[in-house]
Design goal:
- Helix content is about 55%, strand content about 0%.
- The chain has 4 helices and no strands.
- Helix 2 packs across helix 3.
- The relative contact order is 0.22.
Amino acid sequence: MKHTYNDINFYFGNNLRKFRESKGYSQDDFAALCNISRAYYGRIERGEHSITLDRCALIAQALGVHISDLFVDLPD
């Protein structure tokens, strides 16, 4: 799937990747911590999947950040 620079899922996935990497987690380890498959989590980070708010809350909790932090610097 080709992404455009205005694709909100693409930017959101990049934010997740930056948070995950800053905490030192691999995709495998972080997906396991969130109790989701690595393949599914990888699709979220690549912007190939639109995530629910429930999953956002779960991921934010696992990262130890407020859910709103996941949405900082997304394009309008």
